[in-house]
From TrEMBL:
InterPro entries: Cupin_1, Germin, Germin_Mn-BS, RmlC-like_jellyroll, RmlC_Cupin_sf. Disulfide bonds join 32-49. Belongs to the germin family. Mn(2+) binds at residues 111, 113, 118, 162. One of its GO terms (cellular component) is apoplast. It is found in: Secreted, Extracellular space, Apoplast. This is Germin-like protein. Residues 63-216 form the Cupin type-1 domain. It holds the Pfam family Cupin_1. It comes from Saponaria officinalis.
Amino acid sequence: MAHHNTLIYLTLLAITSFVAHATDPTQLQDFCVGVNDPKNALFVNGMFCKNPMEATPEDFLFNGLDIPRNTNNRLGSNVTLVTATQLPGLNTLGISLARIDFGPHGLNPPHTHPRASEVLTVLDGTLYVGFVTSNLPNGGNKLFAKVLNKGDVFVFPQGLIHFQFNVGDTPALAIVGLSSQNPGVVTIGNAVFGAQPPISVDVLSKAFQLNDKLIKYLQSVFGTSQ
């Protein structure tokens, strides 16, 4: 019995250790304001770090997130990211955020964040949102979706495909928080049909069970057709 308990303990320790190391690295000082020029840096932690004695309040400030963005594009949406690139004081803190503007019936298309979970708050309008699980034991994928109104909050787990769609006839607005200073984004349609050089038509037609002509059309829409 003692051996069995020890094995369970070691297994749990291994799992928790893996989870603890599956996020952004912990900072090694109070803050590490990112700089582009290594000549101005003293430390390296995610990005080159400014001398902390030379940091200013402006290093921790981002202006303009209240300004509506242009949604006049084919998707009718616009994402304004605030990561360590835009706000150097975020470097090593393991968080970032974004503003998402939606025109009427605008869409933030299916995508993933390989390094972050996301929490979304609707500030205005009505959004239909959802995420899809990774492959289940039975080979399926379950959709978790809800219609959100002003003040509602929804969470998208790290790495899972998710989307947001404005179901209203008026603009909508959301703010999202992300659990990484550099969450990354993989837009599914762009990645699959917009890769350069293009993924083989034979591969995509078999994967999606579509004819070659339709695959080539999709590649032309996403800009990979030669």
